[in-house]
Write a structure and sequence with these properties.
By secondary structure, the protein is an alpha/beta fold. It contains 7 helices and 10 strands. Helix 5 runs antiparallel to helix 6.
Length: 230
């Protein structure tokens, strides 16, 4: 008993040490989200080291003010200018897995319109939470911005971006109201020649700007990346 009493102050000190310092060593809160292809993704919230696997995702992340948290981007991410200073982690169809691992991300954001299911499942298997967006038109793009804002803890900023987008769209509609509607062919591929069909993001933009998509009666084509929408 006497020996225990002598050790009691040391025990209490150790207990106080754990109470004050142990929480800071614990991982951030884990929050689970459902991504746009129906997968559940658990993220250390808010994420501190984020990798983007597509240029549109990169632009959204910078618009949300995550300059310091963006540690890697896809090779075609060239806007805004700051995106060019970030390490490259590969293209839609060919990722540099060694580079991704070296960057130690706590969140990767991918797109179902380019990145394959196999890529995402491999990253997830290696312990990198990977959230997939899969917007198909203008409304879905706004929703993807909202989802990204939720996953990274910037919901207010995301809603502001969406509000600004709507104001700009309304202005374009006003400026083009009553004007002739030119027929537009938008080429997005050359071998073979590929254009945009009904219901696509680019088809929405053509109509919004006052044009007529010459391929507007064609069905939209989604890249064969193995994804199915839930």
């Amino acid at each position: 008993m006497a020996r225990f009493k002598k050790r009691l102050p040391q025990f209490l000190f150790s207990l106080l040490f754990l109470n004050f310092f142990w929480p800071s060593a614990l991982p951030a809160n884990q929050v689970t989200f459902k991504d746009e292809v129906g997968r559940e993704v658990s993220v250390s919230f808010p994420p501190r080291r984020i990798i983007s696997l597509a240029p549109n995702i990169t632009e959204i992340l910078f618009d949300l003010g995550l300059d310091e948290a963006i540690v890697g981007v896809s090779i075609h991410s060239n806007f805004p200018e700051k995106a060019k200073t970030r390490p490259r982690v590969g293209s839609y169809i060919s990722l540099d897995y060694e580079k991704i691992i070296s960057l130690k991300p706590d969140l990767i954001i991918a797109t179902g319109a380019g990145n394959t299911r196999e890529m995402v499942e491999r990253l997830q298997k290696w312990g990198f939470p990977t959230y997939v967006i899969f917007p198909k038109n203008l409304d879905a793009i706004r929703l993807s911005i909202e989802h990204i804002g939720q996953v990274i803890g910037r919901s207010e900023e995301a809603l502001k971006i969406i509000s600004d987008m709507r104001r700009r769209e309304e202005r374009v509609v006003r400026l083009t109201h009553g004007l002739p509607r030119p027929r537009v062919f938008l080429q997005i591929g050359e071998a073979p020649i590929v254009t945009v069909g009904k219901g696509s993001f680019a088809d929405d933009l053509i109509h919004l700007a006052g044009g007529q998509n010459v391929a507007g009666d064609e069905k939209r084509c989604i890249l064969g990346s193995g994804w199915r929408r839930s």
